[in-house]
Every structure is written in structure tokens, then in C-alpha cells.
Amino acid sequence: NVGLDNAMGEWITFVDSDDYIQQRLLESMIFYESSDLVIGNSIWLNDKDEKLYECNIPKGVFRKNEILPQYLYSAAFNVPWGKLFKSDVIATHNIRFNSNMRVAEDLLFVYQYLLHINRIHAVNGLLHNSNLVHHVPGNFVEKYSMTTAEAAQHYSFVWMTYKQLNI
Fold first, then answer.
1. Which end of the chain has the lower number of beta carbons within 10 A, N or C?
2. Euclidean distance between CA atoms 111 and 37, whole angstroms
3. Closest Cα to residue 117, out of 145, 95, 144, 143?
4. Residue 105 in contact with residue 97, Cβ under 8 Å?
5. How many CB atoms lie within 10 A of CB 40?
6. Rounded to the nearest 5 degrees, what angle is found at the Cα of 1, between the Cα atoms of 146 and 153?
7. 104-135: per-residue pLDDT in tens?
8. What is the pLDDT of residues 38-55, one digit of tens each?
9. CB neighbour list of residue 52: distance below 8 Å, 6 or more residues apart
10. Mean pLDDT of all residues in 21-40
11. Span 72-78, mean pLDDT?
């Protein structure tokens, strides 16, 4: 949120501390000013650098209501990294990460952003070696464990925003 408060560019992107961007990822994503969200290619690796998942959204420009019914539940729309967000949309609607959430705060951020946009451009595979590489921690279960009450509270925020998307 501090980064969002101080961002000065037209676009905002996110990279987790255990991720890295391969050569030319951002270059492959910057030509789509008419879109509200640009989704780049991402690959998920485990601790042994074995591929667990690769973003599978087809290349193209889509209206939100064309792509979300089929792909909203894919990992591509559950995380903020591997995307370009328009900073004016974030600022105008004061979209922030919920600092009271330990889990799904990034999902909530993406859903809140989706409420205010229409055009999504997927650029998967546009340039060779242009991926965001995400590492899934080996201690995933331990890192994200919580009580049932905590989980219910976290996902109630997500559920309220999800319902507003009308998917």
C-alpha cells in the first residue's frame, strides 16, 4: 500500500520477493494503452524448479464479461503479479490491499480492480523468455494456516466483492 500511495507511473505491476521477471516481460506488455488490465505470461515453479502451472489465457483483447466467466477461477486472476494495472483506476477507486488479511488479500485486490474496468489484454507468449516466474513455497500449508474463524472472515471480504462482479 505504501508503494501504491507513492507510485507515479501510468501502470503498476507487482513482483513477490521470491519471484523474478524474465527478460523482456514488461516490454511485451507495454503496448496496450487502450486496455485497462494487461496479463502477461506466468509460470509457477516449486522449490525444485519443477513447473506446477503455466498461465493459460489465450492471447487477445477481451471485454471483462467475455473472459471472466471462463477464466476468473484460474490462477491468472487470483494474484496481482504478472499484470499491468492502470494507476489511475487504482487511485480513483482507492483500491488497496486489506492489511487485516493474511490470506487472499491479493485476490481481493484483483477482484476490486476488476469491478472498475472493462478491457483486458492477454499477451501470453508474445516474446520468447517473457514470463514472470513465481515460486510456490514448500511450506505453503504452514505459511497460510489459520483458524476457521480467520478463514471465514478473510473469504467473506472476497465473497462480497465477487458477488459485485456478477459473474
1. N
2. 12
3. 95
4. yes
5. 27
6. 30
7. 898 999 999 999 999 998 876 544 455 555 56
8. 887 777 777 788 887 777
9. 44, 45, 46, 136
10. 73
11. 83
Q: What is the DSSP letter of 78?
A: T
Residues in the chain: 167
Question: Cell for 106?
Answer: 491479493
Other Cβ atoms within 10 Å of 44 Cβ, number: 19
Which residue matches cell numbers 507468449? 125
Grid coordinates representing 81? Answer: 503479479
> Which grid cell sits at 98?
486489506
If you search the block for the grid coordinates 491479493, which residue do you land on?
106
* Spatial distance between the Cα atoms of 151 and 154, rounded to a whole number of angstroms: 5
- All cell numbers assigned to 101: 488479511
